[in-house]
Amino acid sequence: MSVRWPRLLTPTHLSQLIRSQKNPLKALDIFNEAKARYPSYRHNGPVYAAMIRVLGSSGRLAEMKEIVKQMKEDSCECQDSVLAGVIRTYGDAGLLDEAISLFKSLPEFNCVNYTESFNTLLEIMVKESKLETCYHFFCGELSWVGNQVADTFLEFTYACSLSDAPF
Questions:
Q1: E strand or H helix at 81, and its extent?
Q2: Which of 19-28, 56-65, 82-91, 155-164 has the lowest mean pLDDT?
Q3: PPR repeat ranges (predicted)?
């Protein structure tokens, strides 16, 4: 199916085009072609989010990682929920190290809040019974995540008290 490109491309229209594709690689081609067809066009957060979701949900993790990298390089404003979704996708794929690496690079993104990403990563670690890793990670990252993790701290403390994990 050929894409009918509009005279003026908006991020909303591009997001719709991306989400309507059955083939994730075709969606990626459209995403990449938009900048070439429209030199003044710039992807925004919702367009990046749509492309990341399409690639992540189809298991195209290498391509998803490249789009996340591009989003960071473009300094595009993004929602924490998008990054939390990427972390969850890595976790579901058994790529805990990738999830941790992404989380540690979050200050490089144009995103002001990391609470959901932090909570998602801790949840993955607890589910995978990586409590010692979780504890050390939690203590080490608490300083830059901020005060928004009080509930997570209480949940984590409770989870640790239920397990007999030595720290």
A1: helix 80-92
A2: 155-164
A3: 44-78
- Give the integer Cα–Cα distance in Å for 73 and 59: 23
State the DSSP H helix or E strand holding residue 11, giving kind and residue range, or none if neither.
helix 11-20
Is residue 153 predicted with pLDDT exceeding 70?
Answer: no
**In whole angstroms, how far apart are CA 116 and each of 79, 143, 153?**
10, 16, 13
Q: For 2-45, what is each residue's pLDDT tens digit?
A: 788 999 999 999 999 999 999 999 999 999 999 999 999 999 99
Rounded Cα distance between 126 and 158, Å, is: 12
As a residue count, the chain comes to 167
Please state whether the predicted TM-score (pTM) of the whole model is above 0.85: no
For the record, the structure tokens of 17 come out as 């085009």
Report the amino acid identity of residue 7. R
Contact 78, 110 (CB under 8 A): yes
